[in-house]
Amino acid sequence: MTEVKQNNGEKHGSFEAFIDGNHAGLMTYTWAGEERFIIDHTEVEEAYNGKGVGKEMVLAAVDFARKQGKKIIALCPFAKATFQKNKELQDVLA
């Protein structure tokens, strides 16, 4: 099971994925004002490629955005592709 933890700072933040306590991936973001954040980078540890770790982090970002009333700008190619493939997530795009 994938666990995703959020670290939110004043200017930057991240979502970190863990599987069985092991670090599996990291997605970073930068705040663009108070209402939007930019997903700028997603990386998954090689051992966890193809296991949906990246998508879990995008889903965590979408959940956060919906709960906080924020919008997402997806600059990271992986995040951008995930939004394009999943229309049900696009309501949070800026």
Automatic annotation (TrEMBL):
Q: Which GO terms describe its molecular function?
A: acyltransferase activity, transferring groups other than amino-acyl groups
Entry keyword set: Transferase
Gene3D superfamilies to which the protein is assigned, alphabetical: 3.40.630.30
Family annotation (InterPro entries): Acyl_CoA_acyltransferase (IPR016181), Gcn5-rel_NAT (IPR045057), GNAT_dom (IPR000182), GNAT_YJDJ (IPR031165)
Q: Which Pfam families match?
A: Acetyltransf_CG (PF14542)
Which residues are in the N-acetyltransferase domain?
Answer: 1-94, 7-94
Signal peptide per UniProt = none
Name of this protein: N-acetyltransferase
Q: Which organism is it from?
A: Chryseobacterium daecheongense
